[in-house]
Design a protein that fits this description.
Belongs to the NAD(P)-dependent epimerase/dehydratase family. dTDP-glucose dehydratase subfamily. It comes from Microbacterium trichothecenolyticum. InterPro entries: dTDP_Gluc_deHydtase (IPR005888), NAD(P)-bd_dom (IPR016040), NAD(P)-bd_dom_sf (IPR036291). By secondary structure, the protein is of the alpha/beta class. It has helices at about 10-25, 60-70, 85-90, 90-110, 145-165, 190-200, 215-230, 245-255, 285-290, 300-310, 315-330, and strands spanning about 5, 30-35, 50-55, 75, 115-120, 170-175, 180, 205, 210-215, 215, 235-240, 245, 265-270. The protein has a domain at about 5-180 and about 215-240: Rossmann fold (3-Layer(aba) Sandwich). The chain contains 11 helices and 13 strands. Helix 5 links the parallel strand 5 (about 115-120) and strand 6. Helix 1 (about 10-25) packs across helix 7 (about 215-230), helix 6 (about 190-200) runs parallel beside helix 8 (about 245-255) and helix 6 (about 190-200) packs across helix 10 (about 300-310). The radius of gyration is 19 Å and the shape is globular.
């Protein structure tokens, strides 16, 4: 039985990965999570207790991390401060967790010679114009825009340096925008779904023309497991599911699926430095590691995500007023 340490496993994508691993392998999982505002133990409820341990702690705690690394075979590193809007408000936790935290994990992986997979984002590549036929590839130069994406870029570069300088057995993946169950309602899709449930109009930043390349979190998880099992050490893999949509299209789709008029939304103050378009070319992962997404249809994936938020109001209800008050204070 392989023992995997999953950092950030009480967050959105990390918890989806824990569910995925426990359903599809015999592996044992230890979750290390600080339970910031974004972590939620309820996201791990119902999983087999004999194959899952939870450790409450900080990835920047070198003593704790050293002990945990001595007891596992592999590490999948999701823990991060993940929200662009928060990084514009207070960048400091992004530096502490995304950079110093990742450094702390790399030093422990080096000491204990552990296989490590680092989770990153397509935002490290900056953005594309709407009319540019290009998509990001593993060769695209780094050009991050926000405090969030610059700290993720910094963490990627640390991983690359530890591979080259110390022979660390690490891989990196850069994924596009995820949607699905357990996503914090500060993020675009669950914010709008929970607003419609509460009778609040969805809020589009600026004109709403910005394009994101959507992938279901379960497809992200299957890709990460594929890379952990078959990826070549030192390599970077881009993960995406050809899901480009403008924000305006997504809001109109949500309203339609929830039985509301398609124009029942508001335009609000745009995000500072707002990236225009992200688009992933995942050819390398598909051809070299034979991975393919299962959620081929975005409308169906969105409909099941809407159903999940309707059915799990207890999971998100307590945070809704605070999230909306934070946005309202910024005119968003
Ligand atoms: P999230 O904010 O939902 O979850 C982050 C988790 O990390 C939370 O459980 C939080 O408590 C934990 N955490 C934060 N700081 C910590 C620390 N110092 N020590 C231990 N735990 C800590 O984020 P997410 O959307 O699930 O993103 C997970 C990872 O995937 C991040 O690395 C992010 O950059 C990356 N990513 C996200 C997306 C996306 O669309 N959300 C896309 C590509 C990549
Ligand atoms: O209310 C909103 N209205 C709106 O128009 C919110 C919250 C967002 N938006 C826009 C901003 C973006 O163009 O929707 C788009 C998506 O916004 P977010 O959900 O904040 O995601 P994004 O900034 O694209 O970053 C996400 O994908 C890459 C994740 O939060 C990152 O962690 C990941 O790295």
């Amino acid at each position: 039985m392989r023992r995997i340490l999953v950092t950030g496993g009480a967050g959105f994508i990390g918890s989806n990965f824990v569910h995925h691993v426990l359903a599809h392998t015999d592996d044992h999982v230890t979750v290390l999570d600080k339970l910031t505002y974004a972590g939620n133990l309820a996201s791990l409820e119902g999983l087999p207790v004999d194959r899952l341990d939870f450790v409450h702690g900080d990835i920047a705690d070198a003593v704790l991390v050293d002990d945990l690394f001595s007891r596992v075979d592999a590490v999948v590193h999701y823990a991060a401060e993940s929200h662009n809007d928060n990084s514009l408000h207070d960048p400091r936790p992004f530096v502490d967790t995304n950079i110093v935290g990742t450094y702390t994990l790399l030093e422990a992986a080096r000491k204990h010679d552990r296989r490590l997979h680092h989770i990153s984002t397509d935002e490290v590549y900056g953005d594309l114009e709407l009319d540019d036929p290009a998509r990001f590839t593993e060769q695209t130069p780094y050009n991050p825009s926000s405090p969030y994406s610059s700290t993720k870029a910094g963490s990627d570069l640390l991983v690359r340096a530890w591979v080259r300088s110390f022979g660390l057995r690490a891989t990196i993946s850069n994924c596009s925008n995820n949607y699905g169950p357990y996503q914090h309602i500060e993020k675009f899709i669950p914010r709008q779904i929970t607003s419609v449930i509460r009778g609040i109009r969805p809020k589009l930043y600026g004109a709403g023309e910005n394009v994101r390349d959507w992938i279901h979190a379960d497809d992200h998880s299957s890709a990460v497991l594929t890379i952990l099992d078959h990826g070549v050490v030192g390599e970077t893999y881009l993960i995406g599911a050809d899901g480009e949509r403008s924000n305006k299209d997504v809001v109109e789709l949500i309203l339609g699926l929830m039985g509301r008029p398609a124009d029942e939304y508001e335009h609000v103050t745009d995000r500072a430095g707002h990236d225009m378009r992200y688009a992933i070319d995942s050819t390398k992962l598909r051809t070299e590691l034979d991975w393919a997404p299962s959620f081929g249809n975005f409308e169906e994936g969105l409909a099941s995500t809407i159903a999940w938020y309707r059915d799990h109001e207890a999971w998100w209800a307590a945070s809704k007023d605070g999230v909306e008050a934070f946005y309202a204070s910024k005119g968003q």
